Amino acid sequence: MSREAAIAAAQRCLDTGALRRDLARRVAMPTESQNPERASVLAQYLEEEMRPALESLGFSCRVLREGRWPFLAAERHEEEGRPTVLGYGHGDVIRGLDEGWQQGLSPWTLTQREDRWYGRGVADNKGQHTINLAALGAVIETRGRLGFNAKYLIEMGEEMGSPGLRELCSREKALLSADVLIASDGPRLTAARPTVFLGARGGVTFDLWIDARKGGHHSGNWGGLLSDPAIQLAHAIASICGPTGQIRIPEWVPDGIPDSVRKALADCQPESGLDGPAIEPWWGEPGLTPAEKVFGWCSFTVLAFEAGNPRSPVNAIPAKAWARCQLRFVVGVDWRNVLPALRRHLDRQGFPQVQIAPSRDEVFQATRLDPDHPWVQWAVASIARSTGKKPAILPNLGGSLPNDIFSDTLALPTVWVPHSYPSCSQHAPNEHLPLDVIREGLGLMAGLYWDLGEPGTPR
Questions:
Q1: pTM, full prediction
Q2: Is the model's pLDDT at 364 over the cut of 90?
Q3: Which of 34, 287, 302, 432 minimizes the number of CB atoms within 10 Å of its CB?
């Protein structure tokens, strides 16, 4: 019975094919939360996959609902006085986008090509919570128990902004109470470097549009006489963000980057990777390092823009122009003021005709745990011991997660240990996960779970 034996047992799950069989079943379930026709599959994933998996590890399970969204809450209580750790994962995935995958690949079939597994959810998030459950099982197999108390929460609506999660956690505080959240989602800093992140940037997604008139009108007969809403909307968007990506609305950026955040990011260098796009250093807020731009600052993106009929253009001035936009923001920006500040800005710039509306009700809020927190230092030391590598510490993820629900509603320190990497193509065709990341993830999580059962955990 040893820490090394538990790590070896976890990694054997990959060698024997057990992990692949588990993940293949889960990938085969098209749990697209953005597709209303998949509602029954969301519940099926919890009942037929997650409940049996957790019960086999000695957890008692309850399926809960908040509105139409199902959740699975699981608990394994071993001994009073031991630390209690809450784990989290989401079983829903983004749309499969079947037609965009490489020949021979399908979003709903786990396929290995060279040193990668392909399939929707292998990175976000089915693969990550499958790794963690395998590591939990390896510790129980080796030690005969965990040595700590464990709880797990799996939701099925994260890709829709986690509807109902806040209400569920508010109602079930006693059920979900713990000493710390240790969970896995999002990417590492790079594929080769273990990473912990301690929060997430917030995200507000909204629509901008101009309704100029009813119907299009011939561009020859009316060009020069009728306003073009596409041109107007393009100028309105250009007023929000400069030609090199610098945000021009003061309320959309923080007053500065705290010293503790700069210190943590000093040895963090984002990399493009073999399949990733080349980083463009001229883009974004001037004077910041690449790591500070994505982990310490805010970014504005136009996700989609439409006017006229893009698939079949005609010689007509369009009647309407529409854009879906997104602000990713850090701690220090008030998310409640994002759209009111935009309204004031557009009115000042002479665009009162631009209409604004949030594209969904849920907003991910920005959170950040102090990198010097005892749970952070404990987790970093455990991962370094297991891997022989110095983990990257990111004060917050560049993307968005419902972390504020855990940090604020449940009042937990939050430590995220991701098992993916930036070029994994999550949310796109050909989503994949390298086998090296899987193997290392199994080992470091087994080591971390082992250490939770040893003396010296923060209290």
A1: 0.89
A2: no
A3: 287
Angle, helix 435-452 to helix 374-387, in steps of 10 degrees: 130
pLDDT score for 51 = 98
CA distances from 448 to 135, 147, 182, 252 (A): 9, 12, 10, 38
Query: What are the residue boundaries of the structural domains of the chain, listed by start?
Result: 3-200+365-452, 202-247+298-358
Token pair 């129980």 is found at: 140
CA 255 – CA 334 distance, rounded (Å): 12
> 419, 184 in Cβ contact below 8 A?
yes
Specify whether the CB–CB gap between 171 and 164 falls below 8 A: no
pLDDT, tens digit, 9 for 90 and up, residues 321-344: 999 999 999 999 999 999 999 999
Could you give the 3-state DSSP secondary structure of residue 232? helix
The class level of CATH for 202-247+298-358 reads alpha beta
Tokens of 184: 């896995």
| 446: helix, strand or coil | helix
Residue with tokens 């510490």: 393
